[in-house]
């Protein structure tokens, strides 16, 4: 007798896989992107409209403030010449004060931030938090307190006094920003420099500061903008025209030439040019400096 073995199951015939169809870009994404672009352009137009109106008014020197047309059909530069003759010295004063404030601020903020970031000091976060709280104090309170101290020290109506006051505007922000960046610097890099024979100061200057270039540029730029746009300290700490920044010059210029709005707007345009150039040139460093300390 032969035993019957069960027949083996026949394997199912597999169907060839159909090639997948490329996914079509969704219309929703395209429409949403178009709406986002339109909204961004609208917001940009609203933000830049005051700048355009200043330039438009400055190019129409003979028109009153209510008779300025939307487009300068016959632009002239007399207003810029008048503004440069009367406010050129104030522009140079603001430039000197702002650059001096940047130098003082970075000279103080960089070692302070490095000490808070790498020394392992107890209560370092409390110090940083206290530094941030100082920016909540109203500027008029600080200006009045500084005036009393400056009167005793002989710093009223002086470049040094205004530089120190404007440097205090950017110092808290610079310390916080630089500390956030320097925390991410590996300690092994500094230790390697110490092993090679460098002391702490040399390692800080030759290793830490070059690695913190983006953060230093960002802190310096914001300090420059704080000092360039300062009005409270310029008005409170100066009782004469010996040291007159451009903000104080515009304030006095409006009172003296309130009918010549073309010259006033030309002065405002010239005062905005240095800050705009710095922002355009240093925008990549600003982005890297702000986000550099967020990733360790």
From TrEMBL:
Q: What PANTHER family has UniProt attached to this entry?
A: INNER MEMBRANE ABC TRANSPORTER PERMEASE PROTEIN YCJP (PTHR32243:SF18), MALTOSE TRANSPORT SYSTEM PERMEASE-RELATED (PTHR32243)
Organism encoding this protein = Streptomyces daliensis
Quote the CDD domains the UniProt record gives. Answer: TM_PBP2
Q: Which family does it belong to?
A: Belongs to the binding-protein-dependent transport system permease family.
Pfam families per the record? Answer: BPD_transp_1
Which intervals carry biased composition (Low complexity)?
A: 1-14
Concerning PROSITE patterns, the annotation shows: ABC_TM1 (PS50928)
Which compartments is it annotated to reside in?
A: Cell membrane
Domain of life where this protein originates = Bacteria
List where the protein spans the membrane.
34-55, 91-114, 126-147, 159-178, 215-235, 261-282
Q: What GO biological process terms are annotated to this protein in UniProt? A: transmembrane transport
Give the membrane topology, semicolon-separated if more than one.
Answer: Multi-pass membrane protein
This protein's UniProt keywords: Cell membrane, Membrane, Transmembrane, Transmembrane helix, Transport
Is Cell membrane one of the keywords? Answer: yes
Protein name per UniProt: Carbohydrate ABC transporter permease
Instruction: Return the GO cellular component terms, semicolon-separated.
Output: plasma membrane
Location of region: Disordered? 1-30
């Amino acid at each position: 007798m032969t035993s019957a073995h069960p027949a083996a199951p026949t394997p199912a015939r597999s169907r060839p896989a159909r090639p997948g169809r490329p996914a079509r870009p969704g219309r929703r994404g395209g429409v949403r992107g178009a709406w986002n672009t339109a909204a961004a352009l609208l917001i940009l137009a609203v933000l830049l409209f005051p700048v355009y109106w200043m330039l438009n008014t400055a190019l129409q020197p003979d028109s009153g403030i209510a008779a300025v047309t939307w487009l300068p059909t016959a632009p002239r530069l007399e207003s810029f010449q008048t503004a440069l003759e009367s406010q050129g010295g104030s522009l140079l004063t603001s430039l000197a004060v702002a650059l001096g404030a940047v130098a003082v601020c970075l000279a103080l903020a960089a070692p302070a931030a490095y000490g808070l970031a790498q020394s392992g000091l107890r209560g370092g976060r409390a110090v940083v938090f206290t530094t941030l709280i100082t920016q909540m104090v109203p500027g008029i309170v600080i200006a009045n307190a500084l005036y009393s101290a400056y009167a005793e020290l002989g710093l009223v109506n002086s470049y040094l006094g205004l530089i120190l006051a404007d440097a205090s505007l950017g110092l808290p922000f610079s310390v916080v920003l630089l500390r956030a960046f320097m925390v991410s610097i590996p300690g092994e890099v500094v230790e390697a420099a110490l092993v090679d024979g460098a002391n702490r100061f040399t390692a800080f200057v030759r290793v830490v500061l070059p690695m913190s270039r983006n953060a230093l540029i960002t802190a310096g730029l914001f300090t420059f903008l704080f000092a360039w746009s300062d009005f409270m300290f310029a008005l409170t700490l100066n009782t004469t025209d010996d040291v007159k920044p451009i903000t104080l010059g515009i304030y006095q210029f409006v009172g003296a030439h309130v009918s010549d709005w073309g010259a006033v707007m030309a002065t405002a345009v010239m005062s905005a040019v240095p800050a705009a150039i710095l922002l355009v040139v240093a925008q990549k460093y600003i982005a890297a400096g702000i986000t550099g300390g967020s990733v360790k």
